[in-house]
């Protein structure tokens, strides 16, 4: 963690990591730009190496004060001087006004790890006040990057009742979706989307229609293009855009959605223990499958993967030859000993991996990886007991094919794991995604660009969307 009055971030798994402090890092930027002559900061290193999930997650730590200032001779160079402890910081290279450092400590024997800062942040000033942040409950990114819809949970004061031994939440029950362009930091006015928490956002393949689900048991379909005045209802404190379709049959919170083909039909999972198929044109439910309470459900090549609240995951095949389409049960895993599953991801969209894998995360911080062909367990690991909020596979850059897993956690320390299957199964830390203030990260999205560059987008409780480049 580097910390001063305005900025802090944590570093995990770092005995000798590749520490990039780019020009958009606030502390280094202020010193480099001569806004301030120098500043003291704290760097905290934690040894939370990924381990077998049955092992203890206790860690060693090192907390060192560092003095940040410009070099006396080279005024283009920012120097980090260690005030105490055995932390060692050396400049590795300088390119495009970005400086790279190698940090090491003999007292923490952990592997070489990259530290990545966001190359861009999307900030809505009205909803990112550090004292009253509107946490992001869901976000999505259009395929053409024309829109970034974001759902916020508005901040309200919490009051304590002496009669009830817990904090009573008096938050507003109105939730909004905000649109920003991916190229400009511009947010439109809030539009009321659901009566309760927005649980997921997903674009149709055209990038011009948006599907949302909520804790109010419904799914809504909205236009993603600029909203005309006539489409927004008046006479309310908050504007509400009229949905194209409202899909309602679930009797509990809708947790996730998936698209079939070009979006003529969609699939939803709910805490009511059902998975449903909907006809978009008619708004009618076409099929229903009972299961345990469903969590996120990625759909890959006609196969549906559902993480379940009872600790198991389920695989269903979509039979599109029938009208209406049917979901056929193919596999159900044993219940995990590590608590309810909170997220699931599938690697089949990445051709760089020799094998395809399924990864599930639990509320107790355990990540389990399975072979997608045989459903045999490959490995289990965790580095803290913080709940796994979201998982997303990524193809790691390099000459040889490598498979990565982006991990968003409730402790606000997102990271990227590299998965190794030969000669032995293990997970190592590829990179730390720094820049946040240990606010829980609820959502991630991975995108491979035309130049093979891999982008990772995150959204967290501080109300900020961050974009990283691996």
TrEMBL record:
It comes from the Eukaryota. The keyword DNA damage does not apply. WD repeats lie at residues 191-222, 247-288. SUPFAM superfamilies: WD40 repeat-like. Keywords: Repeat, WD repeat. PROSITE patterns: WD_REPEATS_1, WD_REPEATS_2, WD_REPEATS_REGION. InterPro entries: WD40/YVTN_repeat-like_dom_sf (IPR015943), WD40_repeat_CS (IPR019775), WD40_repeat_dom_sf (IPR036322), WD40_rpt (IPR001680), WDR55/POC1 (IPR050505). This is WD40 repeat-like protein. It comes from Gymnopus androsaceus JB14.
